[in-house]
Amino acid sequence: MKQTLFRLFANLKFSIFILLLISLCSVIGTIIEQDQSIETYKLNYPLTNPLFGVLSWDRILYFGFDHVYKTWWFLFLIFLFGCSLVLCSFLQQLPSLKIARRCQFFRTTNSFSKLQNSAILKDFSFSRIVSTIQVQGYSIFQQKNMLYCYKGLIGRIGPIIVHFSMILILSGTIIGSLFGFKAQEIVPKTENFHIQNILSNGRFSIIPKRSARVNDFWITYTKNKTISQFYSDISLLDLHGNETKRKTISVNYPFIDQGIYYYQTDWSLIALRFKNIQNQIIEYPLINPFSTQEKIWLTWMSNKQFSQDGILLLLDNLEGYCSIYNNVGQFLGNLEMNETLKFNQPITFSEILSSTGLQVKTDPGIPLIYSGFFFLMVSTLLSYITYSQVWIVQKNTQLFIGGTTNRALFDFELEFLKFIKKNYQ
Amino acid sequence: MDWNEIQNFLSNIVFGVLLFSMIIYWINLLFLNDKSFLSQIGRISTSLANIFLFFILCSRWIVAGYFPLSNLYESLLFLTWILLTTYLYVETKTNSRLIGAIVVPITLLISGFANLTLSPEMQKSSPLVPALQSNWLMLHVSMMLLSYGTLIMGSLLCILFLVISGYKDIDLKTNQTGALPLYNVMLEYYETKILSPSSEISEFGKMKLLQSLDNWSYRIIGLGFPFLTIGIISGGVWANEAWGSYWSWDPKETWALITWLVFATYLHARITKGWEGKKTAILGGLGFFVIWICYLGVNFLGKGLHSYGWIS
Q1: Angle at which helices B182-194 and B199-243 cross, to 10°
Q2: Hey, how many other C-beta atoms are within 10 angstroms of the C-beta on A92?
Q3: Contact map slice: A 358-397 vs B, CB within 8 A
Q4: Which of A63, A374, B106, B118: CA 20 to 30 A from A380?
């Protein structure tokens, strides 16, 4: 019973079936938007007019199509795939490798006709053939009148390493999902933060009680006014609030400390600060009235208190200016940093308060995954190498020669031709 | 003239040259039986297009100062270049006029799409957004496009196989156990190309052609697969370094995985099951469509990390 189940899992047809099933299920996740609110699905997939006649929001939620890649059935499929991978490697690939490593001489001559390429030579020079085969890079084994030659054994081992690296990657993913965590912190500049806004964490993950400070946040712009790069200057703090390490991070260049990664991911504006003549600071909070995707903030400066009359200050960048509109939406001009605005009382634009969006995460599976990645890259390349075998048996005045290859059929045919053609020169 | 104009001009020339060489290839295939000077012209003109593309890409690299694969236009040009290069290589190796007649129209379509439908704004090289400012860009994108190019080529050969064999089951092994010594088989194979074929030999030639298509598609897909693997993995490592997760089930990633799985299936069917001919050609042909969905189709969704400004 156990044996047959194992055999089923190691069966190639079964694993190919699982692979194609995983592909099909993944397609669902690219058609239906993932991880949206229920309202979005209600809006896009109404009960009355389901997509393709079957997809309505209640079914989507029932089958978990709103988060395909996290549903139990998708994970189960990947689990099956992993089992099949492990069993196939141990039950089929490793045994076949053992056979391949053994020298296999052909003791009789009737096996030759079954080979891809074979010939019977009557007029030949044995030593010349052997030297040609050797020049082509074959390892040669001889036993009396029998010869066995092979080359590219690494091409035979390659696929096995491919499987093992896939297993490494899968186990790395499991470890990462059990012990890792991911957090997102929106931190106003100059303020301290702890890791607290956890997006996802594993069953056994420990969130470190560490704090850090965002010293500064700034954006550089290109000549065309598009964003060139975001920077956050971060200090790590010890228990007493003293700085231990400091680094400026940007997109693509995270801060890595003791297995904890700090990534630059987002930004936001919080408030505008002005100074009046008495050097008092007046703060106007900024709001983003649109979706969070759009980076536009505005604030309202009223003429007098509780009045409908006033001006609107609008920002969509951190270049150090804001745009002024009146209450009917007419553009009045830009206000530069340190410029004074004559409005009620003269006030000087002194500061834009910004915050940086940091992602903090650990993933203990990364070393496993990266090593899996490395072996996978190398071994898929190695798998391209063709594995060829040549057998020769000399019997009286006849020479039986034959060979097979697993990949480059035509190259091998030409090579084989060389072995036997030389004798006709 | 500034660089932009020169590049645009050259890119239009490439389109013209490809159109010309496609016509040449088709005339050659339909009306002329033997190898004529026309096929030479065809090959020379595609080589010319290839050199022009290489020049365009290099000049963009120098002028913009970063690897020229930052937007759709550049990636289309690069893909055309890769397709032309692999096809020229395979053609010199096999001497088959058929492959050119199939691949050149595809490259023509891609280059036409890049030159005629994309707006001039999208053809310009613009500064890299923060997320793309990394050395991983070069490895990831070039590997992905290299794999797209080779896999498209290999799967095209699969489709060609299906078309020529008339979607029938063909036993490719039959003439290998023939009584003829092997060198004779090879000789006759080359002779059929030169001599005007009698019906028997042409049937034999067709068999040899199918065999070589079968093996070439296998070899090319076998080469494209490691590229795809390296491309996906470098993307994963980059994503982990840049924003903290090596896999986020973004539509593009998912479709790249699907492409990978389809071709992994293809390779398994070949190596382990020993399938060949029609069965694997169907799988390879399926791969052709999957690649295109992965490369362009996903961008229609216009979301995710890989929407490089097409419909926005």
Answers
A1: 100
A2: 17
A3: 359, 361, 363, 366, 369-370, 373, 376-377, 380-381, 383-384
A4: B106
Q: How far is A65 from chain B (nearest CA, A)?
A: 13
- For domain A104-152+387-423, which CATH number applies: 2.30.30, 1.25.10, 3.30.310, 3.40.50? 3.30.310
CB atoms < 10 A from the CB of B102, how many? 18
Local structure of A196: helix, strand or coil:
coil
How far apart are the C-alpha atoms of B64 and B55, rounded to whole Å? 14
Tell me which of B184, B237, B254 to substitute to probe the interface with A (most A C-beta atoms closer than 10 Å).
B254
Task: Tell me, yes or no, if A111 comes closer than 8 A to chain B by beta carbon.
Answer: no
Which residues lie closer than 8 Å to A399 by C-beta, 6 or more apart? A120, A121, A122, A124, A126, A129, A392, A393
Poorest-pLDDT segment among A314-323, B14-23, B75-84: A314-323
Question: Is any Cβ of chain B less than 8 angstroms from the Cβ of A163?
Answer: no
In chain A, residues with a C-beta closer than 8 Å to the C-beta of B297 are none
* Domains of chain A by residue range: 2-95, 104-152+387-423, 163-268+357-376, 270-354
**Cα–chain center distance at B120:** 26
Residue A365 predicted with pLDDT over 70? yes
Quick check: A357 and A117 in contact, CB under 8 A? no
Section B110-130 average pLDDT: 81
- Interface size, chain A vs chain B, as Cβ–Cβ contacts under 8 Å: 130
Can you name the residues that pair with B236 across neighbouring β-strands?
Answer: none
Rg (CA), chain A: 35
pLDDT at B206 exceeding the cut of 90: no
Q: Say whether residue B135 is in contact with chain A using an 8 A CB cutoff.
A: no
A159 touches chain B (CB under 8 A): yes
Residue B206 touches chain A, beta carbons under 8 Å? no
Beta-carbon separation of A229 and B222 below 8 A: no
If you write DSSP's letter for every residue of A18-68 in order, what string do you get?
Answer: HHHHHHHHHHHHHHSPSS--HHHHHHHS-SSS-BTTTB-HHHHHHHTGGGG
Q: Of A393, A408, A421, which is closest to residue A116 (Cα–Cα)?
A: A408
**DSSP three-state, residue A229:** strand
Q: Inter-chain contact A30–B127, Cβ cutoff 8 Å?
A: no
CB contact under 8 Å between B244 and A361, yes or no, is: yes
Residue partners of A94: CB distance under 8 A and separation at least 6? A160
- Residues of A whose CB is below 8 A from B212: 410
